[in-house]
Amino acid sequence: MPLRPGYNIVSEPVAETNSSLAALEFFRQVANNESIETPVTVTGLEDLLYNSAENERSDVLGRLRQALRDTGSIGSMDAVQLHVDGKLVDDVEFRVRIEKADGGVYLDIGQLFVEAPQLISPTHAVARK
Known about the structure:
Number of domains: 1
Number of helices: 3
Number of strands: 9
InterPro entries: DUF8076 (IPR058389)
Low-confidence stretches: none
Domain DUF8076: 4-128
Protein name: DUF8076 domain-containing protein
Pfam family, one: DUF8076
Strand content: 25-35%
Helix content: 10-25%
Largest sheet: 6 strands, mixed
Radius of gyration: 13 Å
Order of helices and strands: EEHEHHEEEEEE
Oligomer: single chain
Structural class: alpha/beta
């Protein structure tokens, strides 16, 4: 299954891309409106969020969401593959469950987007900015 335009949240890579960025670098480039070669694979989003203070995760997600909304780095037909090490969960809200030493943790990755990501398979969801 190929990448779709928008943000492809995947727990297993869907496609090989010529470009790969760590989440922190990706969001730095997005915030600075730098040119990003797409399609691009972004890794480590779950680590970036998990390592944020738990009581600050909503604020971090809000700032990242605003950066995605404001950027000119990613066009409407560009594809971004957000590869997360976890399980996609689409129940009350879209989240990713990651396993850590202290058990499972749910991260509200769906809050990054204006509209909730839509599951197209158990390991692949797509969101628009």
